[in-house]
Amino acid sequence: MRKAIAELVNAIRGELAELSLSGPRVWQANIAALAVGLALVLALMLRVNNPWWAGISAFLCVQASHPQSWQRGGMRMVGTLVGAALSFVLAPWVVYDPLATVLLLFAAGTLAILGSLLSPHGQAWLLGGITAMMVTLGSLDDPTLALSIAFYRAVEIVLGTATALLVTRLLAPAEGEAVAPPPGWHSLFGPNWHVLSHAMRTGMAVAAVPLVWRQLELPNLSQMAISIGAVMAVPTLTGISERDQSAIAQRMLQRIAGCILGGCFGAMVLFFPISQSFVPWLLLLMAGTWLSMQIQSGRYGIAGVGSQAGVALILTLVQDTGPADSLLPAMNRIAGMIGAIGLLVLINLLVGPPLGIQSTAEEKQS
After folding, report:
1. Is 319 helix (H, G, I), strand (E, B) or coil?
2. What is the rounded distance in angstroms from the CA atom of residue 82 to the CA atom of residue 102?
3. What does the DSSP 8-state code read for residue 23?
4. Are 336 and 222 in contact (CB under 8 A)?
5. Which pTM was predicted?
6. To 10 degrees, the CA torsion angle through 231, 315, 165, 85?
7. Dihedral over Cα of 100, 106, 111, 116: its sign
8. Is residue 146 pLDDT above 90, yes or no?
9. End-to-end CA separation in angstroms for the chain
10. Which of 160, 92, 2, 109 is nearest to 340 (CA)?
11. Across all residues in the chain, what is the average pLDDT?
């Protein structure tokens, strides 16, 4: 663990040392900052419930080229709308039944990760599952809120994503690298059993969120479920247990590091009185997302740090009506992220190491 932390710290230092003001990496950061700023302005003008979701969605949608952004953003919008619709229909029926709630959350978490790893429409599956989790968890205390939560989450995410797609259409390169095709939905009980096992582990962690939340009175249970999905949504699984476990551990570390970097940057901004004025606040927030995108698109392989730093920064600086005037809401949201990682560690300890087709030792012998 110490070695992994030391390597991560060195990688962050390397990325910061290589910051520049020219090149494709900087252009992508410029696009991300502009997309986030525009999405937040539109969200605040429309007075949506949680404008930070528009900013986060815009940030996460921006890729190196417009086709890549469109592929990612289009699927995210479709998944969000489908997930919001299904959860709105199902939530009022299941939230009164604890067992049904647990089963719905398990299914949403499992299908979100399974689809993200196997389907050519992986982002749609991931966002559909995450949206279903948000609506279900958000309506546990008051099922009548299901429609409101589903509507506003869909509007906020689609608004941010559409804004990012517009900006990338105008400014991003027209060509980009091709994405490797996913393996497809075959052999789930054969060669791809390790993928199903990984997805079910995610579903178990998500299903445990309301139980842990009620017992320990943890803040922001929706953020916990989202963070679990983000950590477990590794790009690929090798089928080698040790490698897959290492990849998940690295995502956890990168997510924690990103929370610290983005949260600290946001906290420093809030200490300046000028941050309560809209234009300086927006420019400082855009500067932070510009820096986060540079880290995300750098060459040291710590994209998770950059993406999570951008998310944590937006969560810290944006509140319901605009500039944040307190750190407490951000602390609650970030505590939900950290709590999700703790819950994943607990699930892994209880269930055991991830299953794989073979171990590293077996791979060396073959």
Report:
1. strand
2. 20
3. S
4. yes
5. 0.88
6. 70
7. positive
8. no
9. 28
10. 109
11. 85
